[in-house]
Amino acid sequence: MAVAACAILAAPLRAEAPPIGSEIDLSGWSRTFSEEFDSLDISARGPGTRWIAHVPWGGDFGDARFTDPAPGFPFTTRDGVLRIEARKVGNVWRSGLIASVDPQGRGFAQRYGYFEIRARMPEGEGVWPAFWLVGIDRSTATAEIDVLEYYGAKPDLFKSVAHVWNRDGSRPHYSDWSRSPAPGATTAFNTYGVDVEEDWITVYFNRRAVWRTPTKPEHRQPLYVMANLALGGGFPIDRTPDPSVFEIDYIRVYAR
């Protein structure tokens, strides 16, 4: 699928929140974005590529520097799987991030719908892979949904968070979060998804609902996609395996 020229405005769903444990049925949905990682169309900051290798607003986070793409590092694709590698280069940890819009907001974003990654987590204390969404409009606040945050120090669990960060630094910021079981996170590929609707944000593991939270007004806008292998996140990295690899089979987005 080509890079989207503008955001997709999918129809919202006003309904009862899906029961925890229920399975999402995508048979009535349309796939609006599909990245199967047979290859990787990426540049440092765009324009014109499907992905860029830094957060669109600039700056890094965590204890590894997100690195411009180069042959063989930090991104490789093989047999339809993207490998994001973290390793020490000299005394500095380096790793990778992919984002679906560039600093000018060009690329793929969608308001409402189901966003999903199929991935296998790296092992070891200090690894911090994530799959997350951010709102296009950051003029007054940053709307963020962390579908998946995985901490190697806490295997078999993943964290999901809905954030609203006020850009002027005023408080209160908004955060609601949950930790959910993720059996086999490092030994098998599993799916991690979120359905963002007008009333509810619902997180899924292997397409079964594990957590939900009310949708804040700031999240009712086009959201773009990011995935990365960061390090740290509040945990030490002195015993982090070098190298560490986050494997992604696909990223897909659906609309009703």
Keywords, separated by commas or semicolons:
256 residues; mainly beta; Jelly Rolls; six-stranded antiparallel sheet; globular; disordered N terminus; Glycoside hydrolase family 16 protein; hydrolase activity, hydrolyzing O-glycosyl compounds; Glycosyl_Hydrlase_16
What does this structure look like?
With 256 residues, the protein is mainly beta. The protein has one domain: Jelly Rolls (Sandwich). The protein contains no helices and 20 strands. The protein has strands at residues 8-9, 30-35, 42-43, 51-52, 65-66, 75-78, 81-89, 92-95, 97-99, 110-111, 113-120, 127-135, 141-149, 157-166, 174-181, 190-196, 200-205, 208-214, 223-231, 244-255. Strands 2, 5, 6, 7, 8, 11, 16, 17, 18 and 20 form a 10-stranded mixed β-sheet that branches. A hairpin with a 7-residue loop joins strand 14 (157-166) and strand 15 (174-181). It starts with 7 loop residues before the first strand and ends with a strand.
